[in-house]
Amino acid sequence: GQEKLSCNPRKENGSHVVLCELGNPMKAGAQITVDMELSVSGLEDMGDAITFQLQLRSKNSPNSANASVTVTVPVEAQAVMELRGTSLPASTVLPVSWHRVEGSRRLEDHGIKVEHVYQLHNKGPSTVSGVTLSLAVPNQLGGRILFYLLELGTEGDVNCTNPPGLNAEQV
Fold it and tell me: 169 phi and psi, to 5 degrees?
C-alpha cells in the first residue's frame, strides 16, 4: 500500500539534507519504491541542471554507510514575456502641402512629433535577466524620410543602444 513519508529538512555539513523515515522495523529482503516531489526555490541562477545525492542508510545494517547515488535534474526556467506598445498621437496626418525644411533645427520643420512607447512585461512564472529586445523602426520609405528618429529614452534598470542616425541633424 501507499503511505506518506515523514520528512524533515535540516543542514548537515553545510549541505541541505532532507531526511525521510521509511519505516522501522523492515523485514529482511524488503523492497520499496519511493516517489519524492521536491519544491526548490531560487534556481534562476543555478545553470541548466541541479544535482541531488541520494543515500539509503540503515541503523541496523552491518554497512550503515551505503554508497550514495547522484541524480541530475535539468532545470528550465520559464517566463512569458509580453510587449505592449502605443503611439502618441494614435494617428497622424500631414497636410498635402507640407514640406520638410532641409537644414532646419526646429522640430516642427521635420514633421509632427510622434512618440512610440513600448513596455516589456514579464508575466512569469520565473524571473528573467539578460533580456535583449530589438526594435526595427523603418525610418525611410522609397528613399525619403518616413520617421526622423529624435531620441531614445528608458525607465528603470534598462540599457539601450542608440540606433545609427539618431537625431542626425541635431534637431
Answer: -95, 10
- The model's pLDDT over 75-119, given as tens digits with 9 standing for 90+, comes to 877 889 999 999 999 998 888 888 888 888 888 888 888 899 999
The pTM for the full model equals: 0.52
DSSP state, residue 108:
G
Which one-letter DSSP state was computed for residue 157? Answer: S
Nearest to 16 by CA among 48, 45, 47, 42: 42
Domain tally for the chain? Answer: 2
Range of the domain at 120: 77-170
Nearest Cα neighbor of 33 from 62, 68, 1, 72 is 1
User: What's the sign of the alpha-carbon dihedral 155, 161, 167, 170?
Assistant: positive
Residue where the block lists cell 513596455: 119
